[in-house]
Amino acid sequence: EKPEISVFTNDQQRALVQASYRHRYGVFIRLDLCTGLRMGELLALKWEDIDFSAAQLHVRRTINRLAKYEAHDGENKTEIVFGTPKTKNSRRTIPLTRTITDELARWKQQQAQDKIRAGDKYTDDGFIVTNEFGHYFEQKTFKDYYDRLLKDADIGHFTFHALRHTFATRALERGMDYKTLSAILGHYSVAFTMDTYVHSMDEHKRREMDKMDDMFGMQYSISVENQPYPVLCTLSPDGCTAHVPDFPKITTQATSLDAALLEVKQQIQKVLRQYKYPPVPTKQEQIVVPDNSVLVLVKAG
Q: What 3-state class would DSSP assign to 64?
């Protein structure tokens, strides 16, 4: 089986983008979210690959650290290698949004300032992703910067490849067809693109299926707005723990019963906004109440 792909939620993506503006290399995180570049493709970009007049980017090379074919004793066993993408599909042209084109132009100005400050110590080989002295990055070093940014955004750990997966998922959510997306990502076939991202589209598929409600010429609706949901509250010397059988993920702990019920009500309201057809509340006679607990009916409305 293929491993589960990792994609940023909309909230995580928003937090990541906000944090990226506080980091020198944050512009490249935003660039990747807008293009789906592989890390080796991103780090190998040169200014000659950017066509500002046409607002597009050309993928022509990659950077990787590979094992040396022959390494003598005492020498480093690996070396940085710049090469062309392996397949014809990987050598591609990607249109750029106006926003990211403007951001790249501002980064070019930043590089010009770096060059002035560094003077003779600056190396100008035309690379886009560079440190203060104009030197390109290898993947391990740039990954360290990326991990720092994730920590600053406080959204947990994600591989750099999650940026590529997130771009693809957002593109499909906005209606991009698989053939176009496959070309932008540099995949060898449209079928591979579809197979890779079909499982990341569950929420989108749900919204699309909701449009099929009138398939038989009728609308199905269940009104639960004024129906109370049962809440099990367990009392202890430390306070009250409450959970909702109809929403297993809803649980809270508070210093008092009233505080717990107020928090639970707010969580139920939040969850109900995500449902077109919310679950019908379980009948209270169907719920087993432990000896140290009480059952309370809470209306979401």
A: strand
